[in-house]
Amino acid sequence: MTPPVGLISLATAQPPHELPQADVARVAREIFQDRFPQFERMAPVFETTGIRTRQSAMPMAWYLEPRGWPERMEAYAAAAVELFVRVAGAALDEAGLTGADIDMIVTVSSTGIATPSLEARAMEAMDFRPDAARVPVFGLGCAGGATGLALAARLAAAEPGARVLLVALELCTLSFRLDAPTKADIVATALFGDGAAACVLRAGEAGFARVGGAAEHTWPGTLDIMGWRVDPQGLGVIFAQAIPPFARQRLRPAMDAMLAGQGLAVEDVDRFVCHPGGTKVVEALESALGLGQGALDHERGVLADHGNMSAPTVLYVLDRVRRAGLPSRSVMTALGPGFTASTVTLDAA
User: Fold this and answer.
1) pLDDT (tens digit per residue) in 22-47
2) Could you give the C-alpha distances from 196 to 84, 261, 292, 326, in angstroms and in order?
3) In this structure, which long-range contacts are made by residues 291-299, counting pairs with CB atoms below 8 Å and at least 24 apart in sequence?
4) d(CA 156, CA 4)
5) Catalytic site includes residue 274
6) Greater confidence, 110 or 187?
7) The pTM is what?
8) Candidate list 142, 172, 199, 274, residue with the active-site label
9) Burial classification of residue 261, based on how many CB atoms lie within 10 Å of its CB (0-12 exposed, 13-18 middle, 19 or more buried)
10) Is residue 334 predicted with pLDDT exceeding 70?
């Protein structure tokens, strides 16, 4: 019988440049008010997101010049590797390990393309062994933190004793667009930040939590809800449908089914650990899951301090929840392109 997979450590890290929301709103008005006729009607989004500040890979001035694919991906490769080394090192330090102790590396990132992938570029700096297995994962978007953790747990369970390092890293701000802005681009400018999270997992080791199960649900006919458009300028965000009403109406049946597969119900969960896509998404999650208004306090805190960082964001929330005292049973959940809900059930060790 396979021993349970323990979550041994968890670390987070941000790039160095601070983006106070008030400053971003001011610069966005200067840039977009003459290029986007509806900007003033949309401007309140900078206040209603619940964000005070965010972090970015590049200083604000970098984003105010036209950028194409080569410059964006050059910036991604350089900044992402530095952030990878920093966050992975912090997770290894907490676990009392070195890079040479890691058997598998799962890297989740959907905001840039680097081949060789990030963990390969970081191998020497991290002292990873030449025989360490590499698993780069692209395309999960905001669901990447939860889905990546589920994948890392499955890999750990498949090879008891192996130490698996998960790194979820996104540099969302590098997709900022000056050309032909859309409503989705304005929302993205108000919402997204950069960040990374990393953790170590191992079957048979207690850690601070055990992975009790995982599940996903992808709704048919929803490919256009969230994703990237790709053109010569780079990546452009797609929000074809409003996500808060979708979550409010359709998440609960999917959650009931995902939990039922583990012999659980919503009432058996002490704490949902949610990806905070934005303030309205957080409110929709509270409504859909029957939580009291304001119950997702750590989600709001992460959003205020870092914005929506896509994949790593839900792991930031988990870090705050565990520092406050992880309850007996938690379910980590995130929504992402597909359109997919991903969950991981965690039992406090």
Assistant:
1) 999 998 888 888 777 888 888 888 88
2) 7, 31, 29, 21
3) 296/272, 298/273, 298/324, 299/274, 299/275
4) 9
5) no
6) 110
7) 0.95
8) 142
9) exposed
10) yes
Hunting for tokens 């050059």 — which residue is that? 74
In sequence order, the 6+-apart residues with CB closer than 8 A to the CB of 166 are 106, 108, 148, 149, 151, 152, 198, 199, 200, 201
- Give the ranges where 183-312 is alpha helix by DSSP (H): 183-191, 243-260, 279-288, 297-306
β-partners of residue 230 are 235
* Residue 136, phi-psi category: left (phi > 0), alpha (psi -120 to 50), beta (remainder): beta
Q: Is 162 helix (H, G, I), strand (E, B) or coil?
A: coil
What are the tokens at 116?
């060789």
Residue type, 156: A
Question: Cα–chain-centroid distance for residue 331?
Answer: 16
DSSP run (H or E) holding 222 = none
Q: Which are the contacts of 107, defined by CB distance < 8 A and separation ≥ 6?
A: 84, 117, 118, 119, 134, 135, 136, 137, 167, 169
Which residues, at least 6 apart from 38, have a Cβ–Cβ distance to it below 8 Å?
Answer: 183
Residue type, 233: Q
Which pLDDT tens digit goes with each residue over 181-209?
A: 778 788 888 899 999 999 999 999 889 99
Element (H, E) at 9: strand 5-13
- Alpha-carbon distance 242 to 220, whole Å? 16
The enclosing H or E element of 89 equals: helix 69-95
Q: Looking at residue 35, what is its pLDDT?
A: 77
Mean pLDDT of the chain: 93
**Would you list the DSSP string of 54-67?**
EEESS-GGGGGS--
